[in-house]
Design brief:
By secondary structure, the protein is an all-alpha fold. The chain is 82% helix and 0% strand. The protein has helices at residues 2-13, 18-29, 38-47, 52-76, 78-88, 95-115, 120-129, 134-159, 161-192. The longest helix is centred in the last third of the chain and has 32 residues, at 161-192.
Length: 193
């Protein structure tokens, strides 16, 4: 089933309304959909490199709006829709511990997981369930989701098709290194200033 969804999303990348589909997939992935928007972002940017940053912006805005929907699910519908989503991904066990960790380390969790291909819906639902500060959630989501999508778009814009295989193979490593550098910068600012 996951492969069929992946193939369907890839086909949408070539659709004449691909940007609208990208926005919808980005929105849905942040709250309930299993396929990350990168699946559309990569071929769309490669097909229209001059639109790379527009495509990344669409992806970012829609992802953050979808994150707000995921936040609402966690804050208002956790016992019904939220748990059904978590159960579908096999994430119910250990969820309580995650929410407790989120209450203490929420900003760092958003910053790290927002950059990586780890399902962002878990972060958004947990943010709502933990009643994490909404403004901090939005700012952190814009920063991390934007960094992730703009980094991919910039690499594709600059290096074109040869970088696609590299990104697909090392996306987790690249975004993890970027997250470490970002967090290292915040820690340095906090303790050095």
């Amino acid at each position: 089933m996951l492969r069929a969804l992946y193939d369907w999303v890839m086909a949408l990348a070539a659709h004449r309304h691909a940007e609208r589909w990208l926005a919808l997939i980005s929105f849905a992935e942040s709250s309930f959909f299993p396929i990350p928007p990168d699946v559309m972002l990569l071929p769309m940017v490669l097909a229209r490199r001059e639109r790379a940053f527009r495509i990344a912006a669409i992806c970012t805005v829609a992802s953050v709006l979808g994150g707000l929907f995921g936040y609402a699910i966690g804050a208002l519908l956790l016992d019904t829709i939220g748990m059904a989503i978590l159960k579908a991904y096999g994430l119910v066990q250990g969820y309580e511990a995650y929410v407790k960790a989120f209450e203490e380390w929420g900003l760092w969790i958003i910053l790290i997981k927002g950059l990586t291909p780890i399902p962002y819906k878990v972060v958004t639902i947990a943010s709502g369930a933990a009643k994490f500060d909404l403004m901090v959630f939005v700012v952190a989501s814009v920063a991390t989701r934007g960094a992730r999508f703009f980094l991919v778009a910039a690499l594709l814009w600059r290096f074109g098709p040869p970088i696609k295989a590299f990104i697909e193979r090392y996306l987790t490593l690249l975004t993890t290194l970027f997250a470490v550098a970002l967090i290292g910068g915040f820690v340095a600012i906090k303790y050095l200033i």
